[in-house]
Structures are given as structure tokens and as C-alpha cells.
Amino acid sequence: MIRLSANVITSAIVLLQQLDNHRVISLGELAYCKIDSIAIEDISDFCQRCCWVEVEAEKLILTPRGEHILQLYKNEEAYRLDMLEDYVLKCSPIWSSRIPYGRKEASLFMSDDERACFFEAELLNKNIDMIALKWWDTLSTIIRGRSDQENAKIGREGERRTVQYEKNRTGVSPKWISIESNLVGYDIQSQIDKNDAAPLLIEVKASKNVLHDACFYITSHEWHVACTSKSYII
Question: Model-level pTM?
């Protein structure tokens, strides 16, 4: 996918205008057309990823979101804010995960062209207004929620693998405690080994990060249970 730039945003608007003016563009035409020196195939791909256009019966058509963007542009409203929101949420540039840590943290990892687009939309101005503040806060909330969901998914996968590992190790299916309650201070109750059925409490920490970048947090309750239990592992 082509990288975001002021030229890409302008070209995307031109494509939306062409489709709004009932100029049907077939997929076969894409390889032979350009908009502002950018291949229309690239602009089309960008707009599809942002959900402004879609393919129907081998033709490009506007989506309701694309119509919304175009209406903002026609009324000289802040269309760039909505376009940048769609770019961040749909295309997930690598720096988007930094947004919950603050706009400066995110902008440090943007390309020069991306940063210029955000300045043009008045999202990186030194004196931030309430509109820009709301934009950053909204995106931060959405991305943080996505991160929480992903972390929960990774955590469950770690627990599932632990259950399977313990069953293979001991020959007995362990109890998946965290499914019933995540307040007890551990996730899995297994046993010491095949010949010792004494309880082994397991707190599972899972990550997709490489080993030297991985870290985990332990709550005060988990720490207390670990210190007061006869057999407890992480």
C-alpha cells in the first residue's frame, strides 16, 4: 500500500469525486489511469483499505463512508480529520499503537509526509484546540480497547497451551480456574507430577514479543498467593 501523503489525500478526493460524478471505473482501467501522477490502482487500493470505495461487479463504487468524506469536502468542513481517522483505524500504521501514549509519541514514528498531513489537519499544532483534543482522545480510546482485546486473546491462548502442556506432563487434565474467576491469584490448578497429586498453582503470563522485549505484570494479590502457597509457579 502507498504511504500517506498530502498528494495521496488529494488524489483520493479526486477519485471520490469522479465516482460521485457517475464516472464508472472498471478494474481493467486501473492499470492505465493516473491521478496527479499516482497510479489510480494505488489510490484505489488506498481508498478500499480506508473503506471509502469498494468493488462491485468489477466496478469501483463509493461506500457510504466515502460519500460522507466527500460531503465534508464539498461543505468545506474538516474532512481531513475523518480521513486521517479512517487511515489510522483501517490501515493501522506501525505508529498507531503509540497514540494512547500521547500525540508526540506517535508523531516521532511518523514519516515526514504523514507528519505533514497531521499538521495540515491541525492535529499537531503546538496550541491544541478542543476539536483536535477530542480527535486524539477518541482514537486513543479505540486503540487502547483494541490492545486490551488483543492482550486478552493472547492471554487466553497462553492459558490454553498451559492446560495442554500440563495434561501431557502429568497425564491429568488440570483445572482452568481463570475461566470461572480471575480473582483467585492464579490461572491453572495442576498437580506436582504424575505420581504426586498435590496441587500446583500456575499463573500464566503470555506474550508475542521476542524474549528480550517481553515483560509481564503481577498484581499484589498474585504476589501474595505466590508467597503463601506451597507450590506456585509463573
Answer: 0.71
